[in-house]
Design goal:
- Helices cover 80% and strands 0% of the residues.
- It is built from eight helices and no strands.
Length: 164
């Protein structure tokens, strides 16, 4: 059961998980606006990686927030890492929601465009592209990749923000 004390303990992580997902959705809007989902789709695989700067920044701010407002300015690597893992665990159930919003509302033509581009450039057959570029596969990749990257980011960021 959830009591008020338990919820309060993780409110900072929940706040930053929500900020992370809003950032991801805004990044998708930015990508669409930049043409990386249609006219410049050949640039997408490269430019989408710049979101990592935002993702890492969110974790940095989240763990600094936890250090400052929960641990009174001091935090061990372990405390910071656990906090980062909790942020990740809050992001996990939000990720499929963000994926759904992205590919049904922000950029519904993305999968059609990337499949067409992959086939046209000879990188994949039509069947391979359709099996790879679809919402179900992207949700699965987001859950697995997001979890692994969240844990790794938490470990590295925790090293830099620890303060005794």
């Amino acid at each position: 059961y959830l009591n008020a004390q338990r919820v309060k303990k993780y409110i900072i992580e929940l706040k930053w998980a929500i900020i992370f997902m809003i950032s991801a959705l805004l990044w998708m809007i930015f990508e669409k606006f930049m043409g990386w989902h249609d006219l410049l789709i050949d640039k997408h695989m490269t430019y989408t990686n710049f979101f990592a700067i935002i993702a890492v920044s969110v974790y940095v701010f989240a763990l600094i927030d936890k250090r400052k407002n929960f641990y009174q300015g001091k935090i061990t690597w372990k405390q910071a890492f656990i906090s980062g893992v909790i942020v990740t665990l809050f992001i996990i159930p939000l990720n499929p929601i963000a994926q759904y919003l992205t590919y049904y509302f922000i950029t519904p033509e993305y999968f059609t465009n990337i499949i067409s581009h992959s086939v046209k450039t000879g990188k994949m057959t039509l069947i391979e592209a359709e099996n790879y570029f679809n919402l179900q596969n992207y949700m699965l990749q987001g859950l697995i990749g997001g979890t692994l990257m969240g844990f790794a980011t938490s470990a590295v960021v925790s090293f830099f923000i620890k303060k005794q």
